[in-house]
Amino acid sequence: MPRQGVVMLLAVARALRPVARSVRTPVRPRSTVAEAESRFITGHPDCNVTPYIANLVGRDLHKKSAHPLGIIKDRIEAYFAGLETSYDVFDGEDPVVTTTQCFDDLNIPPEHPGRSKSDTYYLTDTELLRTHTSAHQSQHLRQGHEAFLCTGDVYRRDEIDASHFPAFHQMEGVRVFEKEEWESKGVEAVDLARDELRTPLEGLARHLFGDVEMRWVDAYFPFTEPSMELEIFFKGEWLEVLGCGVMEMQILEEAGLGDKRAWAFGLGLERLAMVLFDVPDIRLFWSDDKRFTKQFEAGMFKAGGVDMRKFKPYSKYPPCLKDVSFWLPKDAEDGSNLFSENNLCEVVRDAAGSLVEEVKLIDEFENKKKGLTSNCFRIVYRSMERSLTDDEINTIQEKVREDMVAKLGVELR
Length: 413
Ligand code: DAH
Prior knowledge:
By secondary structure, the chain is α+β, with helices and mostly antiparallel strands.
């Protein structure tokens, strides 16, 4: 499923967890946490959080003022601080939320693919690693915040390539309007909220990208109506900056604000940081390598990246490519199948951690006689920090192949 921006999960809190309990597991992506020690690996039959994922939680990259994600976040917060409305700022909510917060409160239907275990990391049947920061909208509204920003790490179980990583960062913004505001202007509530979101969000895009061409594109999110995306023309292409819209009344009603109207937006920090700082691979944000971290300083940002120091790539270590061909398992009676590309990616992530750069389908064919489909995937291994040895990659690849048979039911060819 397309990632940031596109329809995704949502939600707001009903069963409020203690706020601002940021989890500080002292971990690095390459180390592993003992399963028993992790509160994310619960032993519940629906738990699909792996040690690798558990170890990503709590790094708080968005709170580091000299990290590209922190630099962009600070820049956005500074922009909102300069507006007339005062926005409350949150960045420390627990990434573990309930299905109510992440989906139900946000009007996300039961059959939405974002709820599935192949897209989302569950701790139990009702608790998960948030898939978007919209999961905190309702709780902040209920707590009485009528204009706020909320940033955090979010988790999605999806494909592996240079712009996808199972953990990334989003910022959410919400602004509520009172009846007097639309009545005094003589307009409908929904029109007021829609009109009022344009100016601050276009201003935000200029604050980040400078004087660029922009356009509004209709979109769909289950929690807003109307919904739209703001795109800018940057470096020769249209780039989506954020998704937004007028919040569905149901969300406000359930938060006890049924007589008001609101707009909301959500944006992905990695995407913006990658284009503004020329960072070529999303995994770099998680690197502790000084050659990466030393290139950034708090407050270094300049609009549009004009006259701003960009990331200078250091020499890349060579990749190591491994292909794996296999017959897909047949569908179960209910039409389900153990194999999916996301499930394969999880198996690879589990074995390789951040040493995997890309997993891509390179060949597919059907053997009509056998009634079977064959796939060939190429797995690209590469470290951001060192040269890999044949031995270590062979060991990882062997584990991947074994897990593909044991967990995904494929027949290796
Ligand atoms: N939660 C959406 C996503 O992850 C982004 C989003 C879109 C947030 C529209 C919003 C919104 O608050 O109004 O893709």
